[in-house]
Write a structure and sequence with these properties.
The chain is α/β, with parallel strands linked by helices. Helices cover 42% and strands 16% of the residues. It binds 3-isopropylmalic acid (IPM) and magnesium ion. Magnesium ion is lined by residues 270, 274, 301.
């Protein structure tokens, strides 16, 4: 094996990506589209069950727009672990073609095979979708009003350990090497989005999270580029923390109330947002937006929970994560009023009133009952 050649190829691929980022057009303007196509991908495990409930809620909120042809819901089949394993691809070609015909996507969780699983070791469909559609910003809000928590995470979504996550090298039986990639362009675009969000939402602080004391080259770049971007926002305070102490400070009852907006490399964002979601009631309660300039995808932050399906409990899975993702989708494509109504209904049903409770088991509400409960609370 010629490792020097493999490394050369990796570098060439990433340099080409940098050039593409330099050329990238501006954000798509949904208002100028005659029709917005919303693709719905059920995914695996509990995915189809919870995504169907989220689609039902969105169809209700956009009934008029669907009737007049301003919005179209389009089912995209075939993004299942069986089809992906059979095709030997993270996303089968026909699925990717269908996805690219849509403007935004509502997506259920898709199973990511691990080494040693019964499935071929293909790349995660999530990660592949983020790369294929260049969905560079993973925006994850976490709110716990009772604890004074109102955070929005801007997780970089295409770089860091994820860029080359499936292309590491086993140099010998004893030596394995992975690659971590951070670019100026990739960092600047996520930082700008975070600061712009802070500016237009009256937030006073943006917190940069890295481990730049140890991972000096890549995290060093991420930190420096974020600080450069921060200079364009003199009214917003910037602080920077290392990821280890940051995980601790999310549990510090006084300190955590001061945080508002976070910007961080992919892997730290992956980990920190699970911790944050746990404070809100678990990963089943959190939605996630994957935003690019041309496409956007809205999904749950959790996995496909195959055990629930094996145990016959799919109908009892909590659809709130995908419904919340649906509310973010509405807001993203310009239906703010409908989005706010849905956010309000979600808050009422999951926090304030809780007339129905989902336990994930018989005895608790089913996903369909909970979606009905939410729909009956949309004013
Ligand atoms: C997430 C998930 C994904 C990730 C997995 C399912 C590939 O954990 O969206 O946070 O690692 O990004
Ligand atoms: Mg994660």
């Amino acid at each position: 094996m010629d490792y020097a050649k493999q490394f050369e190829d990796i570098v060439a691929g990433q340099l080409a990506r940098v050039e593409k980022m330099k050329e990238a057009a501006d954000f798509i303007d949904y208002e100028t589209l005659g029709k917005i196509v919303i693709g719905v991908i059920g995914g695996d495990g509990i995915g189809p069950a919870i995504t169907a409930e989220a689609q039902r809620v969105l169809e209700c909120l956009l009934a008029e727009e669907a009737r007049s042809g301003k919005v179209e819901f389009r089912a995209i089949d075939g993004c299942t672990i069986e089809r992906r394993a059979e095709a030997g691809k993270a996303i089968p070609d026909d699925v990717l073609d269908a996805v690219k015909q849509c403007h935004v996507l509502l997506k259920g969780p898709t199973t990511t095979p691990r080494k040693g699983d019964r499935w071929a070791n293909i790349e995660s469909a999530n990660v592949a979708m983020r790369k294929e559609l260049d969905l560079f910003a993973n925006v994850r809000p976490v709110k716990v009003p009772a604890l004074g928590i109102d955070w929005t995470f801007f997780r970089e979504n295409t770089e860091c350990l994820y860029a080359m996550g499936s292309q590491g090298l086993n140099i010998t039986d004893d030596l394995a090497v992975d690659f971590r990639v951070i670019t100026t362009q990739g960092t600047a675009r996520i930082a700008k989005l975070a600061y712009e969000f802070a500016k237009s939402n009256g937030k006073k602080r943006v917190t940069i999270v890295t481990k730049a004391n140890i991972v000096k080259t890549t995290d060093g770049k991420f930190l420096n580029v974020c600080k450069d971007v921060s200079k364009g926002y003199p009214d917003i305070e910037t602080d920077d923390w290392y990821i280890d102490i940051m995980t601790a400070k999310l549990l510090d009852e006084k300190r955590r109330q001061q945080f508002e907006v976070f910007v961080l490399p992919n892997i730290y964002g992956d980990i920190l947002t699970d911790e944050a979601a746990e404070l809100q009631g678990g990963v089943g309660t959190a939605g996630s937006a994957n935003i690019g300039k041309q496409y956007a995808m809205f999904e749950a932050i959790h996995g496909s929970a195959p055990r629930m399906v094996e145990e016959g409990r799919a109908a009892y899975a909590d659809p709130c994560s995908v419904i919340r993702a649906g509310a973010m989708l509405l807001s993203h494509i310009g239906y703010r009023k409908q989005a706010d109504k849905l956010f309000a209904a979600l808050d009422k049903c999951t926090v304030l009133e809780r007339k129905l409770v989902i336990t994930g088991r018989p005895g608790g509400a089913t996903g369909a009952q909970f979606a009905d409960y939410i729909l009956s609370n949309i004013e």
